[in-house]
Amino acid sequence: MKIPYGGDYNPEQWPRAVWEDDYRLFDAAGVDTLTVGVFTWGLTQPSYDKYDFAVLDGIVSRAVDGGRKICLATGTGAHPAWLAASHPEVTRVDFEGRKHRYGARHNSCPSSPVYRRLSTEIARRIAERYAGNPAIIAWHVGNEYGGACYCPICAAGFQEWLQKRYGSLEALNEAWYTTFWSHTFSDWSQIEPPSALTEHWRGPDHTAFQGITLDYQRFMSDALLANFCDEKAAIREFDSSTPVTTNFMGLYRPIDYHRWAAHLDFASWDNYPPDDRSAARMALAHDLMRGLKGGAPFWLMEQTPSVTACRDVNPLKRPGVMRLWSWQAVAHGADAVLFFQMRAGRGASEKYHGAVIGHSGRSDTRVFQEVAALGAELSALGSVTLGARTPARVALLFDWDSWWALEISDGPSRLVRYLDVVTAYHRALWTLGVDLDVVPVTASLTDYDVVVAPALHMLKGDLAERLSAVAARGGTVVSTFLSGRVDEDDNAFLSDVPGPLAGLFGIRIDEWDARDRSHVNPVAIGAATFPARLIFELVIPEGATVVGTYTGDFYTGTAAVTRNDHGQGQAWYVGTALDQAGVTSVLRPILAAHDLLGPLADLPDVETATRVAPDGTRILFVLNHGPSPAPLPAMTGIDLLTGAAPPARLAPNGVLVLRAS
């Protein structure tokens, strides 16, 4: 047993003579797992009433003969041309109301009965044909689900979804606050999808009725999930046990992955960071993916070995970076390391996308040699990390509803972006070496000493009580500006801000100031002063202790950061967008008080992460993301990659995988 290693393989794009060369190179690189069939619907079903598995049979049999494990896709990552030609209703209507024709890939209406029936049927036939093949270790449904449709079929689906959610028009009208602007609905058929033709102006984030738009985002996430569930059910008719997944896209706004998590047997995702300075952002995405299934390991389903091809500028991964980022994924819970793509395609939009094997098929390129070296390391590591979990005592709450609601809100500021706030607090925890879980707001909080809830704009269910319980038993809760503002329907609480959280934090907020990015109002915390921007809540202590104050404007001296004793613990509130150093300065003493600072918390470019294997083995990962060698303190254990004791200095892009001694 070992970490599966390989990735997306599309041999249907090349003559069969190329396949043999591929497998020779797979042997050289230590590639043992192939994801196949992702975009083969048009080949396996060339017309409505014809199925042809000859190509896919050849792909699967060659992988089996080559001793490879297979992640077999249903092929529904894009629908075929004949389907759109014979049933034009399967293509989407976009936000501006334009009916799309055949083209691209994310172009299927998720509510179309024809699309749902035929995509389910191709999944069923593939499962019937290949189920029981011992080489298949996972099923891959669809591909990178995303986008939205606003067609009449989706309108009808939305109306049906709303009837199930609210039960009556009276309840819906109350939730949507439809007495505003004479919007009261008297029949379900009157409800339109919120788009550029109805409730929106200046784009998707500008809506007259946030409740309508929020519910449509929820509906569309559920509609796409129904497509996944259709195909998974078809697979289960023939295979009751092999795990089924689909590849998520990390910090992806349109789909609420928490709503999907229960339906996947394991989470997997595609890691394509926007630049080569994204180590902290990738850590957040890894932690989010691990948190989808209660801390269970996930698969890194795709990453590029070198460059992407989907952006205006596509920087090359420098020597050692692919290895470093692969080990970072393992450090945060990955039980598979896979690439897109195994061989570079000759044409279309991804012909310049990085690949393990380039167009020339050479094995002496830097990229191939690095892939082969990592393959050798993973083979030597074996099964040590498989199934290992992160022993976190810190939780960071992540909530798609708050993300959506905050960014479609008119006021206080459209410059505040949910991910920016969450990333700042996660980055501080990451820099301080904390092992943490990123969890939904519905997760149990009983195992955590510190719970950080940045930009918790929407407060749902019993979350306020559960956060209070964390502090009451001796834990610490941290939240920020724009938290506790609205209920599940996106309506403001008829109480002091921050709504049901006011008692926990011992504060109230009557006023807030929003400014452009150039405006700075520094906040004094102890002897230090930190820049703050965008939003400035004038925090009024009602039992809380003032920790930080504004130093400018008419509210000079007003509380910006507070700490409230609650039961045996504390609740901290940060009323403004501090810079990164300011956020870190707030969290550091909190973590220190709970003895949670990481072993290398004073080395900002050096990341640490811990996993505990099923047999109790404790594994510490140390990764140097900095440009210079990092001095390390005396550390115990054996580096599983070298068999040696830890060095005194860790080279740039260096990795240690230490088994506790």
Automatic annotation (TrEMBL):
Gene3D superfamilies: 3.40.50.880, Glycosidases (3.20.20.80), Golgi alpha-mannosidase II (2.60.40.1180). Its EC number is 3.2.1.23. It holds the Pfam family Glyco_hydro_42M. Residues 392-596 form the Beta-galactosidase trimerisation domain. Residues 605-659 form the Beta-galactosidase C-terminal domain. Keywords: Glycosidase, Hydrolase. Residues 8-380 form the Glycoside hydrolase family 42 N-terminal domain. It is an enzyme of class 3 (hydrolase). The keyword Amino-acid biosynthesis does not apply. It catalyses: Hydrolysis of terminal non-reducing beta-D-galactose residues in beta-D-galactosides. Belongs to the glycosyl hydrolase 42 family. This is Beta-galactosidase. It comes from Actinoplanes couchii.
